[in-house]
Amino acid sequence: MITFQGVTRKNREDILKMKIKQHQQSYIETIEECLKESDDLSLWRPVGIYHDNQLIGFAMFGLWNENNEERVWLDRFLIDEGYQGQGLGRRSLEAIVDYIMNIYQCHRIYLSLYQDNQEAYHLYKSYGFIETKEKDVHGENIMVLEKD
User: Which residues are catalytic?
Assistant: First the structure.
């Protein structure tokens, strides 16, 4: 079972110890950078991803208002390298999408990723995210998932 826990003093150290594979490191900020960003901008909600009470990953999401348009973003999503390749990324993505849509009572979630991050692209596309043809402020491609 996949569950989520907010980052607290109790789990922060374990969350900070998680690692991703070497070739993935240029695609996402470090967890430390993410937590600093969430400290600086309260709209971001960082969570640990747990499988059967075992910490396996990290995500950060939030509601962003830009140009009078509100968008719910799955801003960061990663699975610790020790748990990759076991289907937990897909299961965690399914669970976090439902979790976020429930919290924000929304039907759309946005994310962005670098064009050459093919592993993530295929995961998101296979789950139903589609490209919007937009780029974010860092030049990453924006994708959106719409569910009714």
Answer: 124
pLDDT at residue 23 in the model: 85
| Distance, CA of 90 to CA of 126 (rounded, Å) | 9
What DSSP string runs through 53-115? TEEEEEEEEEEEEETTEEEEEEEEEEE-GGGTTSSHHHHHHHHHHHHHHHHHT-SEEEEEE-T
Q: How far apart are the first and last CA of the chain?
A: 24
State the Cα–Cα distance between residues 27 and 107, nearest whole angstrom: 26
Report yes or no: 74 and 96 within 8 Å, Cβ to Cβ.
yes
Chain centroid offset of residue 25 CA: 14
Average pLDDT over residues 56-81: 94
